[in-house]
Specification:
The complex is a heterodimer. Chain A is built from eleven helices and two strands; from the N terminus they run ααββααααααααα. A two-stranded antiparallel sheet of chain A has the order 1-2. In chain A, helix 1 crosses helix 11, helix 3 packs antiparallel against helix 8 and helix 5 crosses helix 6. Chain A starts with 5 loop residues before the first helix and ends in a 6-residue tail after the last helix. In chain A, a hairpin with a 6-residue loop joins strand 1 and strand 2. Chain A is mainly alpha-helical. Helix content of chain B is 38%, strand content 22%. In chain B, the strands form two sheets. In chain B, strands 1, 2, 3, 4, 6, 7, 8, 9, 11 and 12 form a ten-stranded mixed sheet that branches. A two-stranded parallel ribbon of chain B has the order 5-10. In chain B, helix 2 packs across helix 10. The chains are: A mainly alpha, B alpha/beta.
């Protein structure tokens, strides 16, 4: 340790403290969630909570089944992924590989999209997208449904996916493209057989982080997914995802009631989803190797 | 020297902002529009008072009063026994004031072609026993009834479900939306929709049905004819006697004839005289 002065140790101390503080806070969140969520199973059976589609927490004869809510979250997340990942994939390839005059413009638009507040998008969807669905989709009986929510969520998550995927693709050295093209390989094959396979882990990482974001999105689904705690039969049926349930009901519950524990348990489930995905993402990132030959 | 002056100025501003009087009102989404009108009037008369109003639901109002987060709790329902227990445990005493009356209007799309509905039919619709408009009135289409409700933080929801469903449960297909405006918007867009809102939010984009033959009008609520109407409250913390200063002045204004006349503007019904 050449040339270390007293000031360096102090600075190092502060930085260390900050890191510890962050870890403590995250650990604290986990602990509080578990502390306020696990007592639920003293009053409600595992089976009822996870398999019953009936969610009546404020009723005299209360029922706490989150099956319908779970399907709500999964269906909205699934449809959003279907809408946004292919589109984001294509856009990121364009942005990373082809630098044309339009690139800057498109990048700015993408960054603008990233800044759109979700509540504003939700208000827009409530009024206009809902109406459009009612008028143009004969099988849709309500304008607030999975389709509507997924459309808006895609808008919200596209910039997220695009930015991360583009970074992953850009990380592949340009020499790979040049080498491949100089050997006479077509552009299409170059991109899909040379560049993408090397960016694979970064792209998966992007997808997983984006999915994490989608699962946790609250405002949009609260306003636009329909609010019906039912198991959907089609993409134009309304649902109430887990996040919307917490947002809509937390304000009213009293501390220490079964409803309170149930909402925290939902929070734990969401946290577990998120943690799983993040762990998978970090695993993938670690295993990605760029061929620098 | 400069540092000392700067510090002194900052502390002065902080102290000053602490001394500025404020009224924090939280609670019912239904009472919100009248509270806003009263706040505007009050601000004109007392410009140094800051008033902030939030309308996330009656339950949030009671909770805020309990935790000392609000001076006035707006409520569209009476306090629940659980909340009374919490109040007692905290050693507090809340005092209610009836500030207006509200009729809950049942709304449908103007193109539907329905004029009147009974409480019994409403019960069947909201519990899911009837799912098609044709089952109510054979002149209507055989389309699915799209049912809207407020979510369960709302006092309007509590009152409506108690009055209409009694002990029954809402059908899972009932869509629970977080605000009255969202319900109005959906009913206006969807020909087969039905919902319920505070009378004050009625617009001409939707149609208010007559319930048991009685239209949701001011006169009908005043005379008690309209079957789905209720008092609206403002609660204060009276543990150490009624609060003094701007909070009580505000409440007193609300109950004067000029204040009460504002309830009609907001689409509600006055609780006290307005001549």
């Amino acid at each position: 340790m050449i040339g270390r002065r007293k000031g360096d140790f102090v600075a190092e101390g502060f930085i260390y403290l900050a890191a510890i503080l962050t870890t403590v806070i995250v650990a604290g969140i986990f602990i509080f969630l578990f502390k306020d969520g696990l007592p639920l199973f003293g009053e409600v059976s595992f089976k009822e909570f996870f398999t019953s589609p009936y969610w009546y927490p404020t009723h005299e004869d209360a029922e706490y089944g989150i099956f319908a809510l779970l399907i709500g979250t999964l269906s909205v997340t699934g449809l959003t992924i279907l809408f946004s990942i292919p589109l984001a994939f294509a856009s990121s390839i364009f942005l990373a590989v082809f630098s044309r005059k339009s690139r800057n413009f498109i990048k700015s638009v993408v960054e603008l999209m990233a800044g759109l507040p979700s509540v504003v998008l939700g208000a827009f969807a409530l009024k206009y997208i809902s109406k459009w669905i009612l008028e143009n989709v004969p099988s849709a009986w309500t304008g607030l449904n999975i389709f509507n929510a997924s459309l808006v969520l895609s808008l919200l998550s596209l910039p997220y996916f695009i930015t991360l995927m583009e970074d992953a693709i850009r990380a592949v050295p340009k020499t790979q493209i040049e080498g491949s093209l100089s050997l006479g390989v077509s552009w299409t094959s170059t991109i899909f057989r040379v560049v993408i396979p090397q960016a694979k882990s970064g792209i998966f990482n992007a997808m997983i982080l984006g999915i994490n974001r989608i699962i946790g999105e609250t405002m949009i689904v609260l306003m636009v997914a329909g609010g019906a705690a039912m198991v959907p039969m089609g993409i134009f049926d309304p649902v109430r995802p887990l996040t919307a349930t917490i947002a809509g009901e937390m304000g009213e519950t009293e501390l220490g009631s079964t409803h309170y524990f149930a909402l925290f348990m939902i929070g734990i489930i969401l946290l577990l989803f998120s943690t799983c995905f993040t762990l998978i993402a970090s695993k993938l990132k670690g295993s990605g190797k760029i061929d620098k030959r | 020297m400069k540092k000392i002056i700067a510090l002194a100025l900052i502390s002065l501003v902080l102290v000053g902002s602490l001394l500025a009087s404020s009224i924090v009102i939280k609670g019912s989404n239904t009472v919100y529009p009248i509270a806003q009108l009263w706040a505007e009037d009050f601000k004109e008369m007392n410009p140094e008072v800051e008033i902030s109003i939030e309308g996330a639901g009656s339950s949030t109002g009671y909770k805020a009063l309990l935790e000392g987060q609000a001076d006035i709790a707006d409520a569209s329902r009476w306090i629940k026994s659980k909340e009374v227990v919490a109040m007692n445990e905290a050693g507090k005493l809340f005092v209610p004031f009836v500030v207006a009356y509200d009729g809950i209007a049942v709304i449908v799309n103007p193109e539907l072609g329905l004029e009147n509905i009974t409480i019994e039919t409403l019960e069947k619709i909201y519990s899911g026993k009837i799912t098609s408009w044709k089952d109510i009135d054979s002149s209507l289409d055989n389309s699915r009834i799209v049912v809207y409700s407020r979510d369960n933080a709302s006092g309007t929801y509590e009152y409506f479900t108690e009055t209409v469903l009694g002990d029954g449960k809402l059908a899972p297909q009932v869509q629970m939306l977080p605000s009255t405006n969202a319900i109005v918007e959906q009913v206006a867009q969807n020909k087969n929709a039905i919902g319920y809102i505070g009378m004050g939010y009625l617009t001409d984009t939707v149609k208010g049905l007559a319930v048991e033959g009685v239209m949701p009008t001011v006169a009908n609520v005043n005379t008690g004819l309209y079957p789905i109407s209720r008092p609206l409250f403002m609660w204060v913390d009276g543990t150490n006697g009624l609060p003094e200063g701007p909070v009580m002045d505000f409440l007193k204004y609300a109950l004067t004839p000029e204040g009460q006349a504002r309830t009609l503007e907001a689409g509600y019904v006055n609780a006290y005289g307005i001549e």
